[in-house]
Amino acid sequence: TIPTHHSAAVFEQHGGPVEIKMVATPTPRGLKPGEALVRLIYTGVCGTDHHVLRGHWPIESKLPLVGGHEGAGVVVALGPGADAFVDIGDRVGIKWLADSCLACDSCRRGLEPNCDKAECSGFSRDGTFQQYAVAAAKHLSPIPAGLSLKDAAPILCADVTVYTALRRADLVPGQFCAILGAGGGLGHLAIQYCVYSGLRVVAVDTGEDKRQLCQSLGAETFIDFRQTKDLVDDVKRATTDGKGPHGALVAASSGAAYEDALKFLRPGGILVAVGLPGGAVIRAGVFDTVLNNLRLAGSYVGTRQEAIEALEIAATAKVRARYRVLGLSDLPAVFEDMEQGRIAGRVVLDLDK
Ligand code: 8ID
Ligand code: ZN
Ligand code: ZN
């Protein structure tokens, strides 16, 4: 039975406190065409949630807001027509892209996140830091039988994002890929996709916990960006011929990481931009970019299809998030830890705690 109220983490203003409180649960009768009501059990906490809470970005979220966009749960009610996409009882995920029109130029070209009418969970719509959420049924991701809801949660943003970004990088087995922010939520999954696809990983991050995590996941080299005297040189030397990696995936929310990556890439190399430090600029010298045949690509989450593919891979256990499980009530402390860079891998919240 669906309760009248449920717990949610709400913030009223950017930079303000996150309050865990009871909010009214939407009623099945109130669902609009194409909507589903999802009983969420777990949610991941993404660096993006932290940016949104603190108001780091040049774009603004709705307020008050329930954040969160890595939610895993079960469909409990359907609005008119939503049964074309999901059934009651289905295990589903709520990802960052909450809705898109599927009809505009971007949608037609397979760039759903760039839809003219894109809606984002935990940004323009209330997200997954709550026990019940309304979602556009067509954008729910089916969770495969072999994957627990807990394991599925971080796949819905961190994992699908790096899966999509690395496909865009078009690297082939044997090549080197540097991952900046390798010990974080996105980065530690990127290491696994690289290893899975036969790439050799140069991991860049900081601290003993992250070093251990990166190495245990198969990174050949770990470079601590806070300890090294010459990061660019260290990364280049980590590649057998010293010419630098063929690709760099920047998953760190740091402008400095972008500058480093442009300096150590091998000729013909590609920088895939994923981390979102608010207000940062990528300064690439035209002369160096042209003469070194460098490529720069942004990569923004993924499509419904990419989410399905990422969940399928997770179900095979070839790529799995490493996370600590905490309760919804721990969210304020999680943001504190994130700010201090204390989280290796991901945090997943049990929404009943
Ligand atoms: O679609 C997208 N492009 C997308 C999707 C999801 C998340 C982008 N993001 C963005 C987030 O908004 C955030 O800016 O990716 C970034 C990373 O998200 P996350 O992995 O969820 O955050 P994290 O777990 O805090 O990991 C970040 C790591 O970067 C390291 C930190 O130590 C941490 O481990 N790091 C930093 I900060 N500066 C670094 C530097 N200069 C660095 N690592 C290497 N060099
Ligand atoms: Zn569209
Ligand atoms: Zn995210």
Automatic annotation (TrEMBL):
Top-rank EC class of the record's enzyme: oxidoreductase
Write down the PROSITE patterns for this protein, in alphabetical order: ADH_ZINC
Q: Which UniProt keywords apply?
A: Metal-binding, NAD, Oxidoreductase, Zinc
What are the boundaries of the signal sequence?
A: none
Q: Domain of life here?
A: Eukaryota
> Which EC numbers does the record give?
1.1.1.1
Domain Enoyl reductase (ER): start-end pairs: 15-349
Q: Which Pfam families match?
A: ADH_N, ADH_zinc_N
- Needs which cofactor? Zn(2+)
Question: Is Oxidoreductase a UniProt keyword of this protein?
Answer: yes
Against InterPro entries, the record matches this protein to: ADH-like_C (IPR013149), ADH-like_N (IPR013154), ADH_Zn_CS (IPR002328), ER (IPR020843), GroES-like_sf (IPR011032), NAD(P)-bd_dom_sf (IPR036291)
- A GO molecular-function annotation: alcohol dehydrogenase (NAD+) activity
What is the designated name of this protein? Answer: alcohol dehydrogenase
Q: Which organism is it from?
A: Pseudozyma flocculosa
